[in-house]
Amino acid sequence: MKNKMSITTKIIIAMAIGLILGSIINAFFQEIAFIKTYFVEGLFHVGGKVFVNALKMLVVPLVTFSLICGVCGIGDVRVLGRVGIKAFGLYILTTGIAITLALFVALMISPGEGFENTASGTTFTAKAAPPLTDVLINIVPSNPIQAFAEGNMLQIIFFVILFSIAILMSGNIGKDIYQLAEKLNEVMMKVVTIVMDFAPYGVFFLMAKTFSEQGIGLIIPMIGYFSVVVFCLLLHAFGTFSLLLIFLAKLNPLVFIKKMRPAHIFAFSTASSNATIPVTLQVVEKRLGVNNATASFTIPLGATINMDGTAIMQGVATVFIANVYSIDLGASDYMTIVGMSILASIGTAGVPGVGLIMLAMVFNQVGLPVEGIGLILGVDRLLDMIRTMVNITGDATVTCIVARGENEIDDTIFNDPNAGIITDVELPHKG
Ligand code: ASP
Q1: 45 falls within a domain
Q2: Which stretch, 113-117, 330-334, 396-400, has highest mean pLDDT?
Q3: What pLDDT digit, counting tens, does each position of 189-210 carry?
């Protein structure tokens, strides 16, 4: 057996080097024009963007083929409906728990009290958030090609499910298309592996770029807010999810967390649940043993509508800003915050920084000053990276629970430490 390092190990090493190098640049060489132009805004920026683009490039075709296989694999519209309702219900439930937990902890610790609001000149102007009615209307695409072109996940899911049901209804012709989709899915998975082979470089560039621009020093004045958010994220990831995994999915949370590592790394470095879909799907199916029939549906759905980490940030941020501006929020405001965070997470896609737009929606609703978001802007990128890890962990947890209920999880794969480990790809050579 070749004693090669697994891709995950290589990526972790690359990530650490990128982080250290970026932080050194930020601390000592930030002002040097040469480094800024050729490395930070040159090599790191281009390398990182190319890699994120490559990941995003996989999402639409992968979700499409994989979802056709998933729906046709389930083969029964009633079962499909059941999986959908369970997943949706659990996504709402976990987000509800997340925001309640965050509000509870934040109210106990009360970050932001006595905070000197010397409003650092950073201003935040909120982008308009989509009204809920539009969110509902827009689930149905008026033009599926446009939905695919824009990567609008809910619309794609809607169309592909409908298309797959039609495949099931079309007898032999449908069968041919299903088989074709299975082959295309297989090939697409190979494309994922090829892109993953470049991941150590991509992750290195992303880390180096982010940390050369975002010095860790930014955290210091915001340490109160930052640490309460991180504490709640950890509590939810290791507390709530573990309990759900033990009691509802009958799975060992330690094995689960360990196996999720590749997906965590991608979520952290890209800060995008959407861009991480290919990796989450692969981990959940190949390493955790969930059948494609469930995962192909619940993972892209979760990446779009389920954001527990983001909800946690919103809970803590609301209490923090209310404290800084000495605004008293009442019980009904807190209820509104819980409801709004859940709705906001359904209506917005998992892309970097979207949490702040959602936060603006919440603030508008309860009458907190939206410009207050400027205060937390500086530390948001780092928190975004961390909360995205929690977001995708939620997607995977719910997927495992739904899969357990449907008898669609293979415990042998789950318990095999080597199952689905991503290794180097052997590119074909002639001769
Ligand atoms: N970046 C997060 C995600 O993709 C969303 C956010 O919190 O901004 O899940």
Answers
A1: yes
A2: 396-400
A3: 899 989 988 999 999 999 889 8
Q: What are phi and psi of 409, to 5 degrees?
A: -125, 135
Give residue-wise pLDDT tens across range 320-351: 999 999 999 999 999 999 998 888 888 777 88
The answer to whether residue 426 is domain-embedded is no
Q: Let me know: does 330 contact 116? Beta carbons within 8 Å.
A: no
pTM listed for this prediction: 0.91
Average pLDDT, the chain: 90
CA-nearest residue, atom 1 of ligand 1: 352
212 lies in a domain? yes
DSSP per-residue string spanning 28-42: IITT-HHIIIIIIII
Ligand 1 geometric centre to CA of 371 (Å)? 20
- d(C-alpha 21, C-alpha 213), whole Å: 11
Instruction: Copy the structure tokens of residue 3.
Output: 């004693």
Pocket of ligand 1 (CB under 6 A): 271-273, 307, 310, 350-355, 384, 387-388, 391
CA distance 56 to 15: 20
Number of domains in the chain: 1
Domain range spanning residue 382? 7-415
Mean pLDDT along residues 357-364: 86
What's the rounded Cα separation, in Å, for the pair 336 and 344? Answer: 12
Question: With 0-12 CB in 10 A as exposed, 13-18 as middle and 19+ as buried, what is 104?
Answer: middle
Whole-number Å distance, alpha carbon 269 to ligand 1 midpoint, is: 12
> What local confidence, expressed as pLDDT, does residue 123 receive?
63
Mutate to test the pocket of ligand 1, among 266, 272, 346 (most ligand atoms within 8 A of CB): 272
Extract the tokens encoding 56: 């995003």
Cα distance between residue 103 and residue 337, in whole Å: 9
What is the CATH classification number for the domain harbouring 61?
1.10.3860.10
Q: What atom in ligand 1 is closest to the CA of residue 356?
A: 8
Determine the 3-state secondary structure of 117 from DSSP.
coil
- The Cα–Cα gap between 286 and 193 comes to 12
- Residue 321's region, left for phi above 0, alpha for psi from -120 to 50, else beta, is alpha
Q: Are 367 and 56 in contact (CB under 8 A)?
A: no
Residue 38 lies in a domain: yes
Give the list of residues 6+ apart from residue 409 with CB closer than 8 angstroms, or none.
Answer: 249, 251, 288, 289, 290, 291, 400, 403
Q: Which atom of ligand 1 is nearest to the CA of 392?
A: 9
Atom of ligand 1 nearest to the CA of 313: 7
